[in-house]
Amino acid sequence: MLGEIANLPVARTAQALRAQVRSWRMEGLRVALTPTMGALHDGHLTLLDVARGPGRADKVAASIFVNPTQFAAGEDFDTYPRDEARDAAMLAASGCDLLYAPSPDQMYPDGFATEVRVTGLTDLLCGAARPGHFDGVALVVSKLLIQAEADVAVFGEKDWQQLAVIRRLAWDLDIPTDILGAPVLREADGLAMSSRNRYLSQPQRAVAPVLHRRLRLAASEIIGGADPTAACAAAASGLLADGFESVDYLEARTADSLALIETAPPPTQSRLFAAARLGRARLIDNVPIEAEAASKAL
Amino acid sequence: MLGEIANLPVARTAQALRAQVRSWRMEGLRVALTPTMGALHDGHLTLLDVARGPGRADKVAASIFVNPTQFAAGEDFDTYPRDEARDAAMLAASGCDLLYAPSPDQMYPDGFATEVRVTGLTDLLCGAARPGHFDGVALVVSKLLIQAEADVAVFGEKDWQQLAVIRRLAWDLDIPTDILGAPVLREADGLAMSSRNRYLSQPQRAVAPVLHRRLRLAASEIIGGADPTAACAAAASGLLADGFESVDYLEARTADSLALIETAPPPTQSRLFAAARLGRARLIDNVPIEAEAASKAL
User: If we measure between CA atoms, which residue out of B6, B194, B196 comes closest to residue B99?
Assistant: First the structure.
C-alpha cells in the first residue's frame, strides 16, 4: 500500500499510514508524526530532531498536506508553494521513515460534514485576523492525529498559538498522542524560518529581521520594568517606521492560556506575539519574555 | 485502577478504560463499546447482543454517562433517571465485561474548550426542535470513541438520526471503530423502549403505542402509492386526535442522508421519523418504508 519517492516510503491514504504505524508499534517501536504543509525548510527538519529525542520516537512519519480548510477566501491556498519531490528528498536525507501525503479528496471526501473547533484561544492573535483559520487547523490536526495513532506529534513553536490550540484539542478529545513543540529555527539575522519568506523581495527580506529584533527589544524593556502595553505599542510603531506595511497585532500574552498582559510585571511563562505584513508576506513571530532572551537582544 | 459494582469492574477515568481495552486487545481480543446514558432497559441490552455478534467483539465495555452538553436549558438533564447500582446489576447479568462511568468533571475539566459538530444532518428532525443537542452528542461520542479505542461501537436505531450523525463523524474524523446499529426493541404493544417512557402516566402509557402504529400505517400507505407528504400529515393529525399534545415532526426521509421525501414512490432505504409529546415525555420513533414492515402494520 506504500509508494516511494526519493527512496522514501509514501502513504497516500489514512489506511496505509495507519497500517505502517501499527506495524511499527507491534514491533515495540515508538512513532512520531510531524505534520507540515510541505515547502520544507530547515525549521521543519528540527521537528524531526525533536521527534527523535530521548524517549520520544524510533520512527518518524512526516505528513505534507496543504489543508484547504485553514485558508480563508483571498488567502494564498492556490499559490502556496508545493514541491513534493524536493520535500521528499529533504525528508529522506534527514532520516524520515515515512511520508504521508494524502490528497484533499482523501481528507475531505464528498459529503464531509464534520467540524472541530477550539473556542477562546482561537478568537485572538492570528484568529482575529484570519477568521476560520484555526477551525481548519483544529479539523485537519484532529484527523491527522486520529489517523496516525502516533505516540508523539511535533509542531513548530513559530506558530505558538496553533500549538496552544492543538494541545487544547488533543487534551479535550482525549487523543492519546503527546503534543510537543519544536523551537523556532532562525536565519543568521534572526528572521524566523517560514515557507512564506520566499514571498519577500530582496529589499523586503532585508527589512524582515527587524520583526524579531523589535520583539526581543520589547521583551527586554518589559523585563526591565516597562509597561507591556506601551512597550508593544512602541515596537509596533517601530515596525511601521522600519517599512512593514501593517501590524496585525503585537501583544504580550501568557504562554498557555494566551491571556493578554496589560500591566507590569508580566507573569512567568509570558511571551510577545506579533504578526505584520511586508509586501505579499504576512510574517509571524514570538519570543519569551524572560531575562535570558532579553540579554541576548541587547 | 478499576473499581467494582455488583461484581462488574468499573472504570471511572478514560485512562482506566483505555488500559483495560488495550490489555484485551494485546491478548488478541476484539472489544466493543456500548455508550448509554444509564436508566437501562431491555433495549439497551440488545446493544450488548449486537456487540457480541459473530466477528464483532469478545469483550464489551458499556458506558454510562448522562452528558450535560446534549441537554438544552429547560430539558430534563437534572431529572434524567440515574441508578448506577441497578444499571450495573443489569449489565453484569447480561455478561457485560466492564462499566465505564466517568464523572462530568472527568469528561469536561476546567478550561475545556473544544467543540465537534456535524453539519446538515443535525439541522432537521430532532435537531430542529433541540438546538445544540447533536453538537453535544457529537462531542461526547467523539470523546468516548477516542477514549475507548474499541473495534466496534453499538448505538440504538431508535435514535436513528443520532446513529446517522455518529456514523458521519466517525467516518469524517477517521475514528477506527466500526459503528453498528441495534434494532429498536419494543414493548408487546409496539411502544419503542425508552428511558423516558417512565415519564408517562398510566393513561398516557395506554396512548403511547399509537405512535408506532400510525408510523406503520403511514409506511404501508406510502408503499401502496400514497403521497408521502399527505400520508405524514394524516398520521400527525391522527396522533393529535389520539391524545398526543403536539407533533414535533412526522416525515419521510432517506435512511442515510436524511433527505426529505416529498413525492411517491420513495427511494429504497427510506424511513418514517416522528417525535411527539405526551405529557412530560417527548417520544421518538422510526420505521422503514418497505413492503415487509407495511404488511405487519395491517
Answer: B6
Say whether pLDDT at A298 is over 50: no
Is the ipTM reported for this complex over the cut 0.85? yes
Residue in B closest to A119 by C-alpha: B113
Active site residues of B: 44
B113 vs A168: CB contact, 8 Å cut-off? Answer: yes
Q: Are A20 and A63 in contact (CB under 8 A)?
A: no
CATH class of A3-182: alpha beta
> Average pLDDT, stretch B237-255?
98
CATH homologous superfamily of B195-297:
Pantoate-beta-alanine ligase, C-terminal domain (3.30.1300.10)
Task: For residue B173, give the nearest of A18, A142, A149 by CB distance.
Answer: A142
* Residue type present at position A36: T
**Cβ–Cβ gap A146/B117 under 8 Å:** no
Indicate yes or no: CB of A172 within 8 angstroms of CB of B112: yes
**Domain coordinates in residue numbering, chain B:** 3-182, 195-297
The pLDDT-based confidence of A289 (bands split at 50, 70, 90) is very high
CB A249 within 8 A of CB A168: no
Q: Which of A173, A176, A257 sits opposite B18 (nearest CB)?
A: A176
CB contact (8 A) between residue B173 and residue A115: no
Query: Which residues lie below 8 Å from residue A271, measured CB to CB, with a gap of 6+?
Result: A160, A252, A253, A254, A255, A286, A287, A288, A289
pLDDT tens per residue, range A140-156:
999 999 999 999 999 99
Chain B residues whose beta carbon lies within 8 Å of the beta carbon of residue A18: 176
